[in-house]
TrEMBL record:
CDD domains: ABC_MJ0796_LolCDE_FtsE. Gene3D superfamilies: P-loop containing nucleotide triphosphate hydrolases (3.40.50.300). Keywords: ATP-binding, Nucleotide-binding, Transport. This is Peptide transporter. It comes from the Archaea. It comes from Methanobacterium bryantii. GO terms for cellular component: membrane protein complex; plasma membrane.
């Protein structure tokens, strides 16, 4: 039932002779079906935590377990494989390929190319009439919908989002967060977002606050 587990996780970045302690002993368990927002000031370690959750980096000390297995036990190429199969990423600036259509963007990461499935995913995010649109022909909210469909392409066990509403107005923030909430509730998808936006945070089940590389005691 535990998708992700952080046990006394430290992350130190070396900058010349200086050591920057980005994470200082994080303990965190994320159960299947959780919907979590990580909040906190700039520099508090949110992105670092998200990078470790997404196996984009490994801890300096302590362990990160994904589906019960220590990510350090995987070699570099196995980590990439694990990431591709288990993690869906969405980004503040959507990161779509401009030369590809919406449908092609969704198919891009697929382990087995399946245009029928890609269409279903686009239907799911409300873009059934826009399969063939290019990025420049889509609004910001629509681009983020394509990015969400793409993130779901390989049925990930966890969806990670770094400021998913950072470029969106209030109306689209509500729409995108509502969509994530539906995915969480209907499919039991585990979702972690990093956000500064209190409106976005209203949609999640649990807010985790970070400060100086640590998680503050939950205030509720
Ligand atoms: P947040 O996402 O909350 O803004 P980060 O996780 O990006 O925080 O950063 C935490 C700390 O680690 C900050 O002091 C930041 O400057 C530092 N940091 C982050 N990434 C790196 C890096 N690749 N190299 C050196 N320092 C980094
Ligand atoms: P942002 O959230 O602004 O898009 P990042 O998440 O990449 O940027 O970085 C957050 C913080 O970590 C910033 O303060 C940035 O200066 C610092 N940081 C990121 N990467 C590095 C790096 N390679 N070296 C030093 N500091 C870094």
């Amino acid at each position: 039932n535990k998708v992700l587990e952080f046990n006394d996780v430290w992350k130190t970045y070396k900058m010349g002779t200086e050591n920057i302690q980005a994470l200082r002993g994080i303990n965190l368990t994320v159960n299947k079906g959780s919907f979590i927002a990580i909040m906190g000031p700039s520099g508090s370690g949110k992105s670092t935590l998200l990078h470790l959750a997404g196996i984009l980096d490994t801890p300096s000390k302590g362990t990160v377990l994904l589906n019960g297995k220590n990510i350090k036990e995987y070699k570099g190429n196995e980590q990439a494989e694990l990431r591709r199969k288990n993690i869906g990423f969405i980004f503040q600036r959507y990161n779509l390929m401009p030369q590809l259509t919406a449908l092609e963007n969704v198919m891009l990461p697929m382990i087995s190319q399946d245009s029928g499935k890609a269409k279903k995913l686009l239907d799911k995010v409300g873009l059934s009439d826009k399969y063939d649109r290019y990025q420049t022909q889509l609004s910001g909210g629509e681009q983020q919908r394509v990015a969400i469909a793409r993130a779901l392409a390989n049925d990930p066990s966890i969806l990670l989002a770094d400021e998913p509403t950072g470029e969106l107005d209030t109306v689209n923030t509500r729409k995108i967060m509502g969509l994530l909430k539906d995915l969480n509730q209907e499919k039991g998808l585990t979702i972690i977002i990093v956000t500064h936006n209190p409106l976005a945070a209203e949609f999640v089940e649990e807010v985790i606050k970070m400060q100086d590389g640590d998680i503050l005691d939950l205030g509720w």
